[in-house]
Amino acid sequence: MNQFSFQDLEDYINGAEHGVIYFNMGSIIKTESFPTEIMNEFFQAFSELPHRILWKWESDEMSGKPENVKISRWLPQFDILSNLYNVKFLYTLYYTFS
């Protein structure tokens, strides 16, 4: 899934039995350019979690992603973080001018 409607996003978050992890490396670091070894480590770690993962990803496809990972080029961070009940963890990078 590349783009969530707001209803899809709400359903995805609220339907997560163990909650959601929001993973966003910001706009400067392009995760799609990570070496295969690094991506495999993320895939392995995320696949072992009971949580659903929302990952801001720069392209339409992510080869080898685990079943519990959903990607999108853009995610409404404010709306995601407003769901304090089911968003269990946020990983994002912030820079001085971001």
TrEMBL record:
It comes from the Eukaryota. One of its GO terms (molecular function) is UDP-glycosyltransferase activity. SUPFAM superfamilies: UDP-Glycosyltransferase/glycogen phosphorylase (SSF53756). Keywords: Glycosyltransferase, Transferase. InterPro entries: UDP-glycosyltransferase, UDP_glucos_trans. Pfam families: UDPGT. Belongs to the UDP-glycosyltransferase family. This is UDP-glucuronosyltransferase. It comes from Diploptera punctata.
